[in-house]
UniProtKB/TrEMBL annotation:
Natural source organism: Asticcacaulis excentricus (strain ATCC 15261 / DSM 4724 / KCTC 12464 / NCIMB 9791 / VKM B-1370 / CB 48)
Stated name of the protein: Siderophore-interacting protein
Residue intervals of the FAD-binding FR-type domain: 15-121
Domain of life the protein comes from: Bacteria
Coiled-coil annotated residue ranges, if any: none
Transmembrane segments: none
Listed PROSITE patterns: FAD_FR
Family: Belongs to the SIP oxidoreductase family.
Single GO term (MF): oxidoreductase activity
Stored InterPro entries: FAD-bd_FR_type (IPR017927), FNR_nucleotide-bd (IPR039261), Riboflavin_synthase-like_b-brl (IPR017938), SIP_FAD-bd (IPR013113), SIP_fam (IPR039374), SIP_rossman_dom (IPR007037)
Length: 245
């Protein structure tokens, strides 16, 4: 794999805290809620499809220190002052899910960041995106902003068919929905793929699961330098977020 034009660009931003308000609520699926926030986004930047902002929620225990969680900017329009966030709803509900479910139009949410972006170049021969529900905002953003004709394969693991989403993309996309009841389906799907050596593989989801998928990709003989894996959450540890590569 050529290294000169395939190294991700890392960009740092000045960290700024903002006060936004809920402008719109959209239930995408039974377990995915979209909130469109409005407010002053002057200077807001997000160059990478898997960037994250810090959301600051009231402490459920009544403490003075807010509870922080990382979320992907699903879409944003600085000129209109709009930021879109998708919330993967789960049980038992943590602070983010609790807040999102009850948040009404006009509700205030404070955010910080992004602190920076990691921008992967468009020079790879193929892109493979693998993730669970928590990764869908990043996957959807990548598909909708990808160059026309770019080869992208998606392996999206969700609870059932009701959780499937529709994405509009100009990429040459092969989107495959896998259901959690068949836990090994993602490994079977990976084995069935024929990927060029010059491929970028992006994995995100529960940390132990993401590690397992990454290990399987290594065993398949893919170049480790072309694999980025992240734990977007960790079973039993609220608020965990791990970079695995």
């Amino acid at each position: 794999m050529a290294e000169d034009n395939r190294t991700p660009l890392r960009v740092r931003f000045d960290l700024r805290r903002r006060e936004l308000r809920v402008a719109e609520r959209i239930r995408l699926t039974p377990h995915m809620l979209r909130l469109v926030l409005s407010g002053d986004l002057e200077g807001f930047q997000s160059l990478g499809f898997d960037d994250h902002v810090k959301l600051l929620f009231p402490d459920p225990q009544g403490g003075d220190t807010p509870v922080m969680r990382d979320y992907t900017p699903r879409a944003f329009d600085v000129s209109k002052g709009l930021l879109t966030l998708d919330f993967a709803l789960h049980e038992p509900a943590g602070p983010a899910t609790q807040w999102a479910l009850q948040a009404q139009i006009g509700e205030i949410l404070h955010i910080g960041g992004p602190r920076g972006s990691q921008v992967w170049p468009d020079a790879f021969a193929h892109y493979l995106l693998i993730g669970d529900e928590t990764a869908l905002p990043a996957i959807g953003r990548r598909l909708e902003t990808a160059p026309a004709g770019q080869p992208i394969t998606v392996l999206a693991v969700v609870e059932n068919a009701a959780e499937r989403q529709t994405w509009i993309t100009q990429a040459k996309a092969d989107i495959r929905w896998l259901y959690r009841a068949q836990a090994d389906d993602v490994l079977i799907a990976i084995n069935a793929l024929t990927l060029p050596e010059d491929a970028l593989v992006w994995v995100a989801g529960e940390a132990h699961w993401a590690k397992m998928v990454r290990s399987h990709l290594h065993d398949k003989g893919l170049n480790p330098k072309g694999i980025k894996a992240s734990g977007y959450w960790l079973k039993g540890e609220p608020g965990a977020h791990q970079a695995l590569d």
